């Protein structure tokens, strides 16, 4: 005859804590990182060679980028592939785009990537806050 306790086994508790932590990290945003808009503003200065918030330049303006359909800014000459991509700039798509735009849309004009997940999250947080 086996006698069993109703108490939770320590390994089960550890597994539950680990699972809960992973779920929270995945829900935190792009690449699991929480963005810092102030730091994103500093990082965005590197984007300013081609982009601005309010005006088209070498790249399209970023005013209203979060939630906007790719290739839809009036007055900017997009690559046909980006214009016809059907992409909507959600946080997840912006994160994927900044990771490697050429991988997402091979014939895009955009050639710059942001390899660091925290940097991407910070830039996206800045765009969400300042480029509405």
Give a written overview of the molecule.
- The protein has 132 residues and is an all-alpha fold.
- It contains six helices and no strands.
- It starts with 9 loop residues before the first helix and ends with a helix.
Task: Give a brief rundown of this model.
43% of the residues lie in helices and 0% in strands.
Average pLDDT works out at: 82
Spatial shape: globular
Percent of residues in helices comes to 40-55%
What oligomeric state best describes the polypeptide chains here? single chain
Strand content: under 5%
Distance between the termini: 68 Å
Number of strands: 0
Structural class: mainly alpha
Annotation field: number of helices: 6
Radius of gyration: 20 Å
Question: What descriptors fit this protein?
Answer:
single chain; 132 residues; mainly alpha; 43% helix; disordered N terminus
Layout of SSEs?
Layout: H1 10-27, H2 37-44, H3 80-83, H4 91-99, H5 101-104, H6 117-130
